[in-house]
Each structure stands twice: as C-alpha cells, then as structure tokens.
Amino acid sequence: MSTRGRTGWIVAGGAAAAGLAVLPLLTSSRSILTWGVLLFLNIALAQSWNLLSGFGGQVNLGHAAFFGLGALLTRFLWFQGQPLLLALAAGTLAAAAAGVIVGAPSLRLHGPYFAIGTLAVAEILRITASNVLPEVSTLPTAALAGYRLAPRYVLALGVAALTMAVAGWLPRSRFGHGLAAVREDEDVAEASGVHVFRHKLLAFVLSAALAGTTGGVFGYYHVSFYPQFAFSPLWTFDALLITFLGGVGTVWGPAAGTAVFLLLRETLALRLVEVHLLIFGILFVLIVLAFPGGLVEAWRTVAARRAWRGGETSAARAVENL
After folding, report:
1. Which helix (H) or strand (E) segment is 137 a member of?
2. CB 3.0–4.6 Å: which of 24, 100, 189, 248 could bond 150 by disulfide?
3. Considering just the CA atoms, what is the radius of gyration of the chain in Å?
4. Beta partners for 138?
5. CA-based diameter of the chain, in Å?
C-alpha cells in the first residue's frame, strides 16, 4: 500500500473512532451501546489472537486462558476497591506474565503440538477456576446501583483501538519484519540472523497481554458470570473464526470479520433458533472456501481488478486519441 493510501486509511480510522467515541453523547439506547461493546470486545480479542497466530504463524488454541486471567484479576481487584485502571493494568500484567510462563516451554513445540499444548493449558485453567470458584460472580450492590453502560462502551472502544494500532504498527516495524520471516520459514529466518525464539516469545507475550486487557474490560462490563466462563474455549474459537473470516495476518481483517460474524450469528439466532449453529457453520465454511484469504483479500482482489480495468480503459482511450 502506498504512503498516501496508508495515510488515508489512518485518517479514516481515526475519524471513525472519534465518531464512535461520541456515540454515547448522541444516544442512550442500551441495545446500540451493548452492540458496540460486543463489537469492540470481539475486535480486540480477535486482533490480539491475530498478532501471534496471523502475523507470527503460531496457532494458539489457548487464547482464552489469558482472556480469563485478565477478566478475573481485574474484576477481583476492582471489587476490592482498587481504581479500575490500576486493576486493568494488573490484569494485563498478569496475562503477560502468564504468556512468558506458558510461552517459554510451549513455543519449543511446533505445529499441531504447540496448538494442542496451549489448548491444554487453557482447559486446565478453566477446570481449576470451576473447582476453586464455583459461585457466580455478581457486581456488588453499590456497583450495580451505579452501573452505566457508556463508560464501558468507551473503554471497550479504547481497547479495540489499541489493538488495531498495535496491529498497524507491527508489519512496518523491525520486529514485525523479523516475525514475518519466522512465519514464512524459521530455518531461513534463523540463518538470516533473526532470533526465532525471542521473536515468537515476544509476540506471544504481546498477544497474551492484549487478551488480558480485553478480558479486564469484559470483567468490568458484565453484571454477573461464572468464573469458568471467562476461560471458555469459545473465546479462542470465536477469535479464530473471526480472524479467518476477515483475513489472517491483516490489519483490518479482525474488524471486518467481527462485523460480519456478529451480524450473521445474531440474525440466524433470531430467525433459526433451533438450527442456527448448523446453518452458521455451513455458511462460514462456504464463505471461507469462496474467499480463502478472507474478506480483506477479496476486497483487494476486487480493487485490483477495477484498477486493472481502469488502466486498460485509459490505455484504450490513449490509443484512440493517437
């Protein structure tokens, strides 16, 4: 993408974020703000998964572990009277530390072994949470009385913007170039002077930290939930499906994928209650088969064809004018 085109996308993204940020001032509709929170949380979670699995090529099936850690620790500290931002920072740091602990040994595995290993870690945490914390976690009475959706909406928007900014920075950074080399061929990257393990571990920790931040916003947003729900594999597989739908390893893929994913899923859930998951799964497979590079790649293909036809037309006109 040219510098002019990149600048245009950045300006458009900033304008869209600014417009979305003032939405709570224009409407108090709970359904609109709730949709906004769900949209931003899914964008942030999918983008955090994309940083490691899309840009780094390391398919992590245990992403829910870091989301759950961030959610529970942020919520616990906030319930104890700590400032929300301090609790959110603690949840993020805990998820990053867990990323180091889990990533250091698991990244020595390759391919499906790495994926299965991370999935096992997430399941261990989910089962442990269900045994240690079996009771539902509900907001205290004072917090419930002062519950407002607007600040949760703005916080979720901020986390989504943060993950998008990190994804936009990564491909153009020195670290991102090294990570892309690791994704393409680890042996060649190592031979070229790229420290493969260090790049993979840093990407793992960055991905885990942002998943923890997203989980912290989830813990602040929800009125009540069972602690083990924060570690559900659904958080991993929704992020995976959204990223594949939008475009793996792309900046805008998770955002585009989230919009289509939520719209499709909720529409089918309302109209085809009993069989909506089956229909959704079939439609998802068909979409992925039709657009193997995701929606972003499909958009690029259409734009390239239009540009080529435009160039062909200009050339034809130039010949006619000779």
Report:
1. strand 137-138
2. 24
3. 21
4. 224
5. 81
Rounded to two decimals, the pTM is: 0.88
According to DSSP, residue 192 is labeled T
Tokens 């419930």, located at residue: 144
Helix 233-246 / helix 30-53 crossing angle, nearest 10 deg: 80
pLDDT, tens only, 283-318: 777 777 777 778 888 888 887 777 777 766 665 565
Q: Which residue has the tokens 């829910």?
A: 64
Beta strands 137-138 and 224-225 are antiparallel
Q: What is the C-alpha separation between 201 and 58, in angstroms, rounded?
A: 10
Residue with tokens 């510098």: 3
Cβ distance 58 to 36 under 8 Å? no
Give the angle subtended at the CA of 11 by the CAs of 6 and 13, to the nearest 5°.
95
Nearest to 204 by CA among 121, 296, 295: 121
Tokens of 99: 């990323």
Output the six-digit token pair for 250.
């792309």
H-state helical runs in 111-191: 112-132, 141-145, 149-169, 174-184, 186-191
Beta strands in 216-266 (DSSP E): 224-225
Task: Give the integer Cα–Cα distance in Å for 312 and 236.
Answer: 45
